[in-house]
Structure formats: C-alpha cells, structure tokens
C-alpha cells in the first residue's frame, strides 16, 4: 500500500507517529501501521474515512493508561484524539463540556473557581473520556456514585463517519452501551458531564509500617461497613522506592497507607467532615502509632495529589477484582500472599472502599452504573515472572471473596480475568455495537470478557 493512501496517519519512526503512540503503560508495545493525533472533529472523520477505505482496523487511544486492556494495535491504524477545544464550564447548569484528550486536572482547574468539581479519578493525568466510558470509581463515589452516571451527552464519530450525539433523549440505546459497554463503538470527541458543588474537602493519608496491617486492615473493614457516604477511602500496601522525592521516613519501606477524601461542600460542613475522619482514625491510631499523617482541610484541587499516583509513564502488570468482605482467615491469607512480613515485588496492593452510592442503581444508568461489591481490589508490580507469581498468589488468596465481576477501568491487561456484566447485558451490548459498527472497524478495541 502506498504510504500516501494512509495520510494523515504518520508512518513508524516519524515524529508524528511517536507523538500519537505516546502511552502511559510502557509494558505494552504500541506499534500500529500508522498513527495520527486528531485535533478536531474533522480530523477524526477523516481518520475513519481512511480506515474504512483501506480496510485497516481503527483503534483509539489518548493517554494510554488502558493500552493493555484490549488486543494489540499491531497492523491497525491508531487515532489519538487531542481536541484543540478547551473545557467549558456552565456554572448555572453545573455542567462541563469536555473535549477528547482533556485530563481530569483540566476539568478540576476549570470547575473549582465556580465552587464546583467533577466526580473524577484519583489521578489528574488520566483522560476524562476513557475514565467515564469505563464507569469511573472516584473518591467522591460513595456520595455521588459511579462517575459515568454524571454523563449528560456523548458526541461520537461512528464507523461511517457520521457525527452523532448520544444522550438520554438522542440515541438512548447507544448512550446506555457507551457507559461501561467495553468499547468498539466509535471515536468519542466530546462529553458533557454534570458537576457537583464542592468548596472544601478533608483529604490526606495516614501511614504505618506494613507489619501493622494484620491489626489495622480488619479494623478498617469493620469501620467501612457503616461509614457515612461522605467519605471514600482506600487501604494500600505500598513498596516505596528510595527516591529523592520520597519522604525519608518512607523511602525503601513496605508500608500500609489509608487515604481518601471526606466531602465537606462548604466551610460550614468542615466540622462534620473532620468528625467523620476522627471516627475512622482514632481507633486505628490507638491500635498502632502512625509513621506519617497528612490529612488536612483543603480545596478540591488537592484531591488528585492525595493518592500519589505516578505522573510519568511506567511499565506495570496488574490484577483486579470486585470483592465481598473478607473474614479473619481471608485477611491473614491475603496479607501473607501480599508479602507482609517478607519481601515482595508488588508495588501496590489496594482495597478501594465501595458501598454507599456506588451500590445504588440509578434510574437512567448505563451498562456499568453501580456495584453491590464491598471493595475494589487492584494490585500491580513491574513486569516480570516474580510479579506474575505474586499476583497469582494474591488472586488465589482472594478467590473465596471474589464476586466474579471487575470494574472496567481497573482491568488493564487483556489476559486477566474480567467481567463487567452478565450474558443478557452482553447480548444487548453486542446488538448495539453491531448496529453502529456493522463492519467491525473498531472491533479490536472491544474489551474481552474472561472469567
């Protein structure tokens, strides 16, 4: 095929190709036949036209956080939507129009001056569109639910090049399927989301030596069962590298960290939020003296810094599951498998608190709109045989507590167990996907189901 036939897609080895193939997940090769950064809706339409004319599959990626979640891009064309438009806030309607390519940091910066924020991810560098299409688990989620429920409309370029709006009133079946359906529908170029009022939060992290996890983790779980919806936390075992940017009391240590946020909305709500934090931390700090405590009252712009997610691309291998509560034997098995009291290659073993609004099905939700699970588990380490063995060991320890389902954005390797919905839902999703993409132009971007 003449390279001119692929224009505007860039060829391997060229600067434009490298820019378009940028990916946060460095463990997954990104080697498409051609790659292109789309700056406008017209660019995206042109990209779909080229793919359709040449018969090459079309894949979509922005930040590349989930690059490993679907089939390799080898032999496909890759379009990277990075719209030139800015995030637009309507403070009266409490909505934001967000172009493809925008990160959560962009939305938060635009919304906070209006006393608003988004139901966003733990990292400001994550792309908004991909997070929302995968449902979205937020530190505001126990109060406001799955982030995809905040979507009001989605503008998408379909396989035939048509620019279509999906919402509760326009193309409602497509709107339902896009929110957690597993990809392969088209190229989303803009979303409109509902914002929430938020001027103050209580956020931070308390850290102990990992050896204290046998006492603290079950106590944290007992608290989580009756915790008010204003608070969402995570419990993590972290292997902290000895880097200059790491606090010296943590560098090179295996630690237990509890972090998250209590939403206060305004100044008048801060005392109640601080009491919620005290109800969590007072019993825990009574069991074991922390190494570090950073909880404070701040503006919503502080939340993306709380979880200390890496800002730069890294290679990693991971595993995930939605879980029921663990009993005493479960915590013991899990903590032993996660390397507490011994060495481990795992960088993080996390339990994200669910419940509250996460468990409440909205009247107009999408495919992934809620989950009855108690916790979301996610663990990762640098790629390698030892990491694979340890992830398998943790998976075995958690087997009695797995619900059989996963949260879409956390299942980021194509070969790991993953299931977002049941077979009846799957059949409906497939029918809608076949309607909007009958030729399978985007089929390589469909997230597989693996039990």
TrEMBL record:
- Superkingdom of source: Bacteria
Q: Does the keyword Hydrolase apply?
A: no
Q: What Pfam families is this protein classified in?
A: FAD_binding_4
Coiled-coil region(s): none
Its family?
A: Belongs to the oxygen-dependent FAD-linked oxidoreductase family.
* Protein name per UniProt: FAD-binding PCMH-type domain-containing protein
What region holds the FAD-binding PCMH-type domain? 28-198
What are the record keywords, sorted? Answer: FAD, Flavoprotein, Oxidoreductase
Cofactor(s) needed by this chain: FAD
């Amino acid at each position: 095929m003449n390279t001119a036939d692929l224009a505007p897609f860039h060829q391997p080895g060229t600067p434009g190709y490298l820019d378009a193939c940028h990916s946060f997940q460095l463990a997954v090769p990104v080697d498409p036949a051609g790659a292109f950064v789309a700056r406008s809706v017209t660019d995206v339409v042109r990209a779909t036209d080229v793919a359709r004319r040449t018969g090459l599959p079309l894949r979509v990626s922005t930040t590349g956080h989930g690059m490993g979640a679907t089939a390799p891009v080898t032999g496909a064309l890759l379009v990277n939507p990075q719209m030139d438009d800015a995030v637009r806030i309507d403070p009266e309607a409490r909505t934001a129009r967000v172009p493809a390519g925008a990160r959560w940091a962009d939305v938060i910066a635009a919304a906070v001056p209006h006393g608003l924020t988004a139901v966003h991810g733990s990292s400001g560098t994550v792309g908004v569109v991909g997070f929302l299409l995968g449902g979205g688990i937020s530190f505001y989620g126990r109060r406001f639910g799955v982030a995809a429920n905040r979507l009001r409309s989605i503008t998408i370029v379909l396989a035939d090049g048509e620019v279509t709006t999906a919402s509760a009133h326009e193309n409602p079946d497509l709107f339902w399927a896009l929110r957690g359906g597993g990809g392969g529908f088209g190229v989303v170029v803009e979303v409109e989301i509902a914002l929430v009022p938020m001027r103050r939060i209580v956020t931070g992290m308390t850290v102990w030596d990992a050896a204290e996890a046998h006492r603290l983790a079950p106590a944290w779980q007992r608290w989580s069962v009756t915790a008010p919806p204003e608070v969402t936390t995570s419990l993590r075992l972290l292997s902290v590298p000895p880097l200059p940017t790491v606090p010296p009391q943590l560098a090179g240590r295996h630690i237990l960290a509890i972090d998250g946020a209590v939403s206060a909305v305004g100044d008048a709500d801060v005392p109640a939020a601080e009491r919620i934090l005290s109800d969590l931390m007072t019993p825990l700090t009574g069991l074991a003296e922390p190494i570090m405590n950073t909880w404070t009252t701040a503006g919503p712009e502080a939340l993306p810094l709380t979880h200390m997610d890496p800002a730069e691309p890294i290679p990693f291998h991971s595993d995930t599951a939605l879980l029921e509560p663990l009993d005493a034997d479960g915590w013991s098995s899990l903590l032993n498998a996660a390397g507490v009291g011994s060495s481990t290659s795992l960088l993080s073993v996390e339990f994200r608190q669910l419940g509250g609004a996460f468990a409440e099905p909205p009247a107009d939700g999408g495919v992934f709109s809620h989950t009855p699970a108690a916790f979301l588990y996610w663990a990762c380490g640098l790629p390698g045989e030892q990491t694979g063995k340890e992830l398998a060991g943790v998976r075995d320890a958690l087997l009695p507590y797995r619900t059989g389902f996963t949260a879409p954005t956390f299942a980021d390797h194509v070969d790991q167990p993953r299931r977002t919905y049941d077979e009846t839902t799957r059949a409906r999703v497939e029918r809608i996907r076949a309607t909007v993409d009958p030729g399978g132009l985007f089929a390589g971007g469909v997230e597989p189901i693996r039990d």
